[in-house]
Amino acid sequence: TLRTFIEQGNDLMTYLITLVMKMAPLGAFALIASAVGSQGFDSLKAMGLYMGVVILSLIVHSVLTYGSTVSLLGKMNPFFFFRKFAPVMLFAFSTSSSNATLPVAMQTAQKELKVPRSVSSFVQPLGATINMDGTAIMQGVATVFIAQVYAVDLTPGQLATVVLTAVLASVGTAGVPGVGLVMLTMVLQSVNLPVEGIALIIGVDRLLDMMRTAVNITGDAACAVIVSKSEEDNLKEGKETDERYA
């Protein structure tokens, strides 16, 4: 009886989620139509600029931050790293879910990047839970964009609050599609911006969600490479010490 009850509850939740997902495109279209109707086509131009800033930030962060750390700390050629991990990035782009991509990411890190299984099985699942760089970038840019739309000037103190809250919110973000918008409400409330401003970006967030998921999962792999190299160096140092004492 208990099993039947749980199964029926699961079927009910699945039905409700499916219903919401089927209605979501209509809701997004209505929000965009409302924004264009009240603010004109300038709102579309503003959303285009917002998308451009987020995409550029994600690319720069991936190439410079991940590439440099993999090269300097992981002692691995960044071109080799991105070439081997590119299929996983494409998979993450298509699923928009860090959790769904995790098995493929771990397999690629272990077989192609030569990360030990012990390191990969700890670092990458942990990163899929708390390492959401792409989400933090989106939340920061989105907050500034919404503030500009509502003609609110953010002080340096408020900008610092946005950065801190975005980082903390990204740590608590689940690795499932679209949850970044839910956590964005926390960031907006931290600087007293209207939560309704999320409606301005919800129509274009799907594409951005796909891109930031690819960035998030790449950061996890980069961390795994760095930890693997660090553990390798520590092991060599320990052996050399044992040999000297022997």
User: What fold name goes in the CATH topology slot of the largest domain?
Assistant: Proton glutamate symport protein
Biggest sheet character: none
Measured as a percent range, the helix fraction is over 70%
Strand content: under 5%
Morphology call: globular
How large is the radius of gyration? 21 Å
* Number of DSSP helical runs: 9
Number of domains: 2
Order of helices and strands: HHHHHHHHH
Architecture of the largest domain, CATH level 2? Answer: Orthogonal Bundle
Report, as a whole number of angstroms, the end-to-end distance: 66 Å
- CATH class term of the largest domain: Mainly Alpha
Class from helix and strand fractions: mainly alpha
Runs with pLDDT <50, length 5+? none
Number of strands: 0
CATH superfamily of the largest domain: Sodium:dicarboxylate symporter
Report the mean per-residue pLDDT as an integer.
81
